[in-house]
Write the structure tokens for this entry.
Amino acid sequence: MQTGYKTTFWISCAIVLLLLLVPTLGSKYLIDLTTEILIYALFALSLNVLIGYSGNISFGHAAYFAIGGYSCAILLTTYELPLIISMPAAIILSGLAAAFVGYFCVKLTDIYFAMLTLAFGMLVWAVAFKWRAVTGGDDGFVGVNVPAFIDNRYGFFYFTLFVVTVSAALLWLICHSAFGRTLVAVRENRVRAGFVGVNTTRLRHTAFVVAGTFAGIAGSLFAMYNRGVYVESAFWTESGQVLIMALLGGLYSFFGPALGAAVLYTLQVGINQYTEYWPVVLGIILLIILMFLPDGIIGLAQKLRSQFSRKA
Amino acid sequence: METVLQTDQATKAFEGFVAINNVSIDLKKGEKHAIIGPNGAGKTTLFNLITGHLSLDSGSVSFEGKDITGTAPHRIVKLGLARSFQRINIYPRMTVFENVQVALIARDGRSFHLFTLGHSLNREESAELLELVGLSDEAEEMAGELAYGKQKQLELAISLASNPRVLLLDEPTAGMSPAETVEAIKLIEEITEARGLALLFTEHDMGVVFGISDRISVLHHGELIFSGPPDHVREDPEVRRVYLGQSHGAA
């Protein structure tokens, strides 16, 4: 193993160990907050396969989060299927939805690609909103059946930590695989990658499906955590929020988006306690990122470190 | 001599403007064939037609006897036809090493291996290719930060990674200083000799064109007006009239 990879591995192990200790601190509030952050971190990591690695900006990523959530909730509750079937089925459904939508989106590039993801995202929202009989419409799908072992705060926390860790490890492998490396080449220069023999359209489609599938995992966790799914999950502002999380952390590092999710979500929860003007703060944060932190928090940390080591 | 690459009455128009008109050219095994012509003559368009980046309106392209008209660029590369570009075409935010490695991963059909770590693949061969073009010392630098001439060398290494038998070079010395040009041409000659490559290239530097070509074809307003050995091209009255007689008096 390369030394850089080894460091990443041990740091990740340390973080997971620390997270395992969170319930021992005795704060229910902290457990809930950590669970939510873990779910959003996975959501942001999944988006970054598309944005950071393949260079395709999506404004409709919440669609797959919502499809995962609704599918898991409906299969568990309406059809009373066990978790072991419902969750994998929900994940596969999110992946299939991404495969379908991606088929059309990857035919386009740049702003046209982004706008088409937005269009499909709004379609999914509209379906969830109008298909009352199945989704509950704007009342939401409430009262999700959750199996006993995760029907309590601690059980659900450990379950989420397990699923998110395994998912993040898989995503890490995919991003550092032969595929991931080729994806970066396509981001850097799509035309050139085509001329070394890469089917760039198919490659971008695969990235789209990977991103959608893992967003579906995050979505099914979120549905079970809330014991419900609400139509807002599919709205385009959700897609915007997860995009900001990824940007805040840094698109050009694997863990950046997870860090961005943690920071942004904590800020949101904290600020909501004092004022209802969270959107104003969010706007300011976005401004600061775009003006001063183009490579996010991780990018800033790297810059500071290299400046510090130059002086030393 | 065996023909490796051929266009047959290739024609391409853009919104009524005929960029390539009825062009039939061929490339023999091991040959160095230059395509020259004034700006806008259709050289780059012809390359884009051959490599599948643009589709033909009529006519055909064949590679090693196989019809490749309408074949996607990434498939054409796999058949053994590689190209480099007039403008720098690399992956700026990847290391020099990774630039070449990705091309080798593609050649080996591993671009879709989602669960094979990319880091350890094709390391030796990547290093060899970088040594061949003289970029061993820059392997870990970001490709976008290389000097211009070195980026062109990297481009060549990327093109060679697919193990081509035919190489299309679009203005390989464009933007280079005279010294860089000499170096680049020496490198290209060495590599094509060593690997037995056939070379189809465009070039504005007439010294280079007459120095290394076995054959020269002249495009003018999208039409092929001459194709033959270098010492005949200077004497062709049509060529003199439309091309050499103009600003390129040196020829």
